Amino acid sequence: MRVVIGLCLLAPFVAMIWVGSYAKTDPTFIGIPFFYWYQMAWVIVSTALTMIAYKLWQRDQRARREGGSR
């Protein structure tokens, strides 16, 4: 579970740090160069992945508490 949480939090970092993969203008999206809309898309994706990681963390902590109290 914690590996999945780590991957959810690491994916946006890796996607943004690897600038060479998105430092281009094509394809454009509604007139916006790829460089800009790719980064804006990652804002939304990062939010979703962080939310998923948080929910998974809560579930993991709850399971550990219930398992430890027996």
TrEMBL record:
Keywords: Membrane, Transmembrane, Transmembrane helix
Top-level taxon of origin: Bacteria
Record-annotated membrane-spanning stretches: 39-57
Pfam families per the UniProt record, alphabetical: DUF3311
InterPro entries given in the database record: DUF3311
Protein name: Membrane protein
